[in-house]
Specification:
single chain; 3 domains; six-stranded mixed sheet; four-stranded mixed sheet; about 60% helix; 70 kDa neurofilament protein
């Protein structure tokens, strides 16, 4: 800002100098005009002197002629009247010539005097004006020089302040770099902790899924034993059941399969004998835990806090044998309000049960039917899958 102001002042000084030079040029031109007019006046004066000399010469010539004429007239006394006549005529002519010459000389002198006086006045006025402007410009130059010196002093102060601020900025930058290095090291440590915790979380989730698989297999075993003990004619016969959930098979499952095979070989026949394989996948924290063997309910679980908003999500079971697809749409956004495991009951079985009773699903269908149970979000993306494979 100070440099800009100094530049503006220097520009004004240059303008004043240019104006001063212009005025000096005008003054020089006026002086040249004065010299020219003086030379012209001197020429006119010389011309007037020459005319006056010529007039004197003509006067002398006329006087000489008059004397000659007088001498002739004095000799010739016979015509006295003519001498007086010519004397009078010559006197009148000389008088008229003298008056005309004097009038012209006076007019020329007055004109030259007036012109010279006006030009001299103009030159004096211009010179006085130029002197006043020169004095004003000198004062302005002094003021601008003083202001320039003040601005230079302020500029030096500003430069000193800038140098001080620059040193402070460098110190702050070095401090910032040190703090940034410390923060980066802490960030690296936190990243390591986060990676370690994520690995532990994945291990815990895997362990939880294994436990859920074991729980599902145990419930299936219990249901199968209950059917066998009750001796129902329409029980779910799993003559060669070997249930594998996600590659997990318990010792009790193997024992149950052997017992059922022995029972079938001893003469007990069921309507269907076969093998059920269940695979589960999930792309989020909500997964499908199990389907009740008789199709009373489907159980879903939540493995994180806060709970996932399931509003407008759909639970769909599609059958490979061409049966009609059953679909339940969640209307509540807080399905896992009190429990992390929720059963979605068919309307045929869930009037007095805990969990959610579906208004659109009468029953979910038996377990020993090849099918896919999927959980889809509001954008119809698959978030969890329970795939039931049956071979009989």
């Amino acid at each position: 800002m100070l440099r800009r102001k100094v530049q503006e002042l220097e520009k004004q000084l240059a303008d004043w100098k240019a104006r001063h030079g212009h005025l000096e040029g005008q003054l020089h031109q006026v002086r040249l005009d004065l010299q020219e007019e003086t030379a012209q006046r001197m020429g006119e004066t010389n011309r007037a002197n020459s005319l006056e000399d010529e007039l004197n010469f003509l006067r002398e010539v006329s006087d000489a002629e008059i004397k000659e004429y007088r001498a002739l007239l004095s000799k010739d006394n016979s015509i006295p009247d003519m001498r007086e006549y010519w004397t009078t005529e010559l006197g009148n002519c000389l008088k008229e010539i003298r008056q005309e010459f004097e009038g012209q000389l006076e007019g020329m002198s007055a004109s030259m005097e007036a012109r010279y006086q006006s030009e001299l006045n103009e030159m004096r006025l211009g010179a006085s004006k130029g002197n006043a402007e020169t004095a004003h410009m000198s004062e302005e130059n002094k003021r601008l020089r003083s202001q320039k010196n003040d601005l230079e002093a302020k500029l030096l102060d500003c430069q000193a302040q800038i140098a001080q601020l620059t040193s402070q900025l460098r110190a702050l930058q070095s401090e910032f770099q040190s703090v940034s290095a410390d923060l980066e090291s802490e960030k690296s440590e936190h990243r390591g902790d986060v990676d370690r915790l994520n690995a532990e979380l994945e291990a815990m989730i895997k362990e939880l899924r294994d436990l859920m698989d074991a729980k599902l297999s145990m419930e299936l075993e219990i249901a199968a034993y209950r059917k066998l003990l009750e001796g129902e004619e329409n029980r779910l016969s799993l003559g060669g059941v070997v249930q594998s959930i996600g590659g997990f098979q318990s010792h009790s499952e193997e024992a149950l399969a052997n017992a059922l095979q022995n029972r079938a070989s001893s003469g007990f026949h069921t309507p269907e004998t076969g093998k059920i394989t269940i695979n589960r996948t999930a792309s989020g924290t909500v997964s499908i835990a199990e389907v009740e063997p008789n199709g009373k309910y489907v159980q879903i679980t939540e493995s994180s806090k806060p709970s996932t908003n399931l509003k407008n999500w759909k639970l769909v079971r599609t059958f490979d044998d061409g049966r009609a697809t059953v679909t339940h749409v969640f209307k509540d956004n807080n399905v896992f309000a009190t429990e992390k495991e929720v059963k979605i009951w068919g309307s045929k079985f869930g009037n007095t049960k805990d969990g959610v009773v579906s208004s659109s699903v009468n029953e979910w269908g038996p377990l020993n039917v090849a099918s896919r149970i999927t959980l889809r979000d509001e954008n119809d993306r698959e978030r969890a899958l329970l795939h039931v494979k049956y071979s009989g």
